[in-house]
Amino acid sequence: MVILRNIPLADRTTIRLGGPASHFCSCATVDDLRDALLYAQQHGLRVQLLGGGSNTVFSDVGFNGLVIGVDLKGITYREEEGAVLAEVAAGEDWDQFVAATVRKGYAGIECLSGIPGSVGATPIQNVGAYGQEVKDTIVSVTVLDRSTSDVRTFTLSECAFSYRTSRFKTTDAGRYIVTSVSFRLQPNGRPTIHYPEVRKKIEASVDLQALKDGTESLTAVRTIVLALRAGKSMVIDPNDPNTRSVGSFFLNPIVGDEALAAVRRTWETIGDGTPVPVFPFGAQTKIPAAWLIERSGFTKGYTRNGVGISARHTLALVNLGGTTAALMELAAEIQQGVFRTFGLHLEMEANIIR
User: Which of 24, 98, 209, 348 is the most exposed place for a label (fewest CB within 10 A)?
Assistant: First the structure.
C-alpha cells in the first residue's frame, strides 16, 4: 500500500467534479484496508471510501483526509442446490459482472445491466432498476469492521434492505467496508420482467418466448435494458455530456395515504387532468420524483451556472463545466420547487462528500 498526496478526485467520479484528496491509497486486499485505516488513525485523518465513483460528489475544495480506493478483485462461482453462488470482490466492476452472468446463462441480475460503479457499492443502497434490486439475489455481504479490523458476514435478513437503503447506509453507516458480496443466480434461467417499460420494449422487438432459456433470452433482455438506459444517457459515454452525472440524483418519495391525497388534490387544481402516477410500495405508495420535478416547473435540459438537468432524464443532474457548489444550488432549487408545489421533500440519492 502506497500513500499518495494531493490526488485529483474529479476523474475518479462519473460526474467529474470536486477537488483533490490530501491523501489517497488503493487497497487490493483486506490487509491493505487494515493498513490504510491504521495509517489514518495514526495521522489523525478522516477516511472516505471510493469505489467506482458513480454515486459520489466531492466538494470543490476536495477531501482533507485519506481517500481509500477499494480495489479488491476476484469472482468465484459454485453450484449449490440447483443454483449458482457467485462470490464477487467489492472492487469488481458491476456491469462487467452482470455481462459475465448473462454470458454464462445465469439469471437474476440481467435488468441491472448498464449501471456504473463497483459491486461493493450495490448492497449499501440496495441498487435497483427496471424491476430488480440486488436484494433479490444477495445471499450475504462480507465486510471489514472499521473499529475492530475484524471480518464478518451478514446474511440477507441481517442486511435490513429496503428501498435504496440497507443497514450499511443507516444504522451502521460508516462502520463497515464491504469486501465481497455473494449472489444466488439461476443457471440456464429465464429473465425476470416486472417493469412495464421493459416488457413493452421486448414485446415490440423480440419474441421472448421463442428464445431459449439462459444466455439467449438473458442477452435479449440485457440488450434492451442497455438501449433503454442509453436512450436516457444512463450508460457512461465519453461523447455524451448527459452521462456526466451520478445517475438518479433524487429518490422517488414513498408516501402514506394522507400525503398521497394531498398531492392528488394539488394536481387536480394545477394539473392537466391526467392522474398522478403511483406505484404500490408495501402499505405505502411510490411517486416518481421525475414527475414531481417536471410538474414543479423544471424541464429536461434546464441549465444554470455550468450544471443542469439532463436533456434525456429528469432525475439526472449533469456537470456541463460547472462546480459542485453550483450543482448543490441547483439541487436545492429543485427541492424547494417540489416542496413549494406538492409539499414533498425530495431526498438526495447521490452521496455528497464535504
Answer: 209
Inter-residue long-range contacts of 255-259, CB under 8 Å, 24+ positions, other chains counted:
255/284, 255/285, 255/286, 255/287, 255/344, 256/284, 256/285, 257/285, 259/343, 259/344
In the chain, where are the structural domains located? Answer: 4-70, 75-231, 241-353
Angle, alpha carbons 237-241-245 (nearest 5°): 80
Which stretches in the chain have pLDDT values below 50? none
Fold for the domain defined by 241-353: 3.90.78
Question: Within 13 Å, how many C-alpha atoms sit on residue 101's CB side?
Answer: 34
Catalytic residues, which ones? 164, 248, 349
Angle at 354 between CA 53 and CA 181, to 5 degrees: 35
pLDDT at position 192 is 86
4-70 fold: 3.30.43
For residue 132, the cross-strand partners are 129
186 within 8 A of 136, measured Cβ to Cβ: no
Phi, psi of 306 (to 5 degrees): 80, 10
The rounded Cα 102 to chain-centroid distance in angstroms is: 20
Closest by alpha carbon to 342, among 294, 282, 281?
294
Give the DSSP per-residue string, 84-114: EEEEEETTSBHHHHHHHHHHHTEESSGGGTT
Q: Would you say the C-alpha torsion 312, 18, 123, 249 has a positive or negative sign?
A: negative
The distance of Cα 115 from the centroid of its chain, to the nearest Å, equals: 7
Cβ atoms within 10 Å of 10's Cβ, excluding its own: 18
- Spell out the residues 6+ positions from residue 280 whose beta carbon is closer than 8 angstroms to its own: 286
| CB-CB neighbours of 133 under 10 Å | 20
Domain 75-231 identical in fold to domain 241-353? no
So what CATH class is 75-231? alpha beta
What is the length of the chain? 354
DSSP 275: P
Locus of grid cell 460503479: 117
